[in-house]
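User: Need the bound-state model for S-adenosylmethionine:
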Amino acid sequence: MFDSTKSSTRRGSSEQEESDTYDEPFMNARPHIDGSAGDVDYGVIGTGYAVYRQPDPRIAAQIARALGDAGTVLNVGAGSGNYEPADREVIAVEPSATMRAQRPPGSPPAIDAVAEHLPFPDGAFDAVMASSTVHQWADLAKGIAEMKRVSRGPVVVTVSDPVRLREFWLADYFPEPLDVESTRFPPIEWLVELLGPETRVEPIPIPLDCTDGFCEAYYGRPERFLEPGVQGAMSSWTLVDPPLVRRFETRLSADLASGAWDARYGYLRAQPEYDGSLRLVIRS
Ligand SMILES: C[S@@+](CC[C@H](N)C(=O)[O-])C[C@H]1O[C@@H](n2cnc3c(N)ncnc32)[C@H](O)[C@@H]1O
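Assistant: Bound-state model below.
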């Protein structure tokens, strides 16, 4: 197992966030003060993330199955630690200080680094995972190549299928964040090609009471879309002009009050699962 304490990169504690000089590629290219590496600044949008994005136990179980019997796991783009299996030895990589600060006490160590340059030797882990993060990476091919390099076994990636994403009912009311999201997430075929021939794709059923507040998690709970905290925990919503968000709120509120939403989609309020865009892509 790789010994993180001997890494040249830093552990994610707040005392360590002063402006050290990085000499690794990509580390200098991070545009945000808190170290965020993607197209959003988690220093601004990430403060409520852990409240609204609790790992869902059913999705966690599916990810755990995909990791097989791996004893050591690297979690890339780990955020506040969602979906890190508690029964394995985990190391996390997370560039945003704001997200590292939301890791619960006792969480596995989180290293300040990026997917495109993982500071570990070849084959350092039994398995490597990345959940809801690849759409934010500056260089997907490099990040996936790095995950494959440091894994001795499975590489497990949770993504949204950008084609399926546009089929969500929200597109009737507020297509803008879905448009944003579907240009950020890579085509599933591209991800499969990057991961290689031993790759399979599993749908992830989304439970009606899903505790992880990504967009489709609220398929049967439309009122939740009106909550600022729910909106702020979905990075694509923060990339849409605020007046468009207000226009959406007005439209959805009116249709909820008149019963128009329920007339079209009310069956979803009792549908136990939604087969949406969520996919588990597994290189075994
Ligand atoms: C939507 S959050 C997902 C966090 C967590 N994996 C989860 O499932 O809740 C996306 C995370 O990816 C991180 N991220 C963005 N660009 C990255 C990069 N190039 N390398 C590693 N992580 C990155 C962000 O800082 C953020 O914490």
